[in-house]
Amino acid sequence: MKKKGLKYIFHDANPPEITAEKIMEIFTKSNIKKIENAIHKSVDKEAV
Fold first, then answer.
1. Rounded CA gap, 39 and 41, in Å?
2. What separation in angstroms does the CA of 19 have from each of 9, 22, 42?
3. Which pLDDT score, from 0 to 100, does residue 38 have?
4. Under a CB-based contact definition with an 8 Å cutoff, are residues 23 and 10 in contact?
5. CB within 8 A of 37, min separation 6: which ones?
6. CB-based burial of residue 19 (10 Å sphere; 0-12 exposed, 13-18 middle, 19+ buried)?
7. Which positions ≥6 away from 22 have C-beta within 8 Å?
8. Cα distance between the two ends of the chain
9. How do the pLDDT tens digits run along the chain, 48 residues long?
10. Rounded distance, CA 5 to CA 47, Å?
11. CA dist., res. 33 & res. 12, Å (int)
């Protein structure tokens, strides 16, 4: 049996630039811990 994946479809009447900003805002909020960890690791590497 083939595994089904998730598909995200966004319907928005706004211009594509505004829609992209809103989607990035949602993704950023949902992954804030991963982003913070990546920033900390990057800063630690630069400090060495």
1. 5
2. 12, 5, 29
3. 87
4. yes
5. none
6. middle
7. 12, 14
8. 50
9. 778 888 888 777 889 899 889 888 988 888 888 888 888 888 887 766
10. 41
11. 28
Which token pair is 32?
């804030």
Q: Which amino acid is at 23?
A: I
Picking from 39, 37, 36, 32, the residue whose alpha carbon sits closest to that of residue 47 is 39
**pLDDT recorded at residue 6:** 84
Tell me what pLDDT residue 48 has: 62
Q: CB–CB of 23/8 below 8 Å? A: no
Contact 19, 12 (CB under 8 A): yes
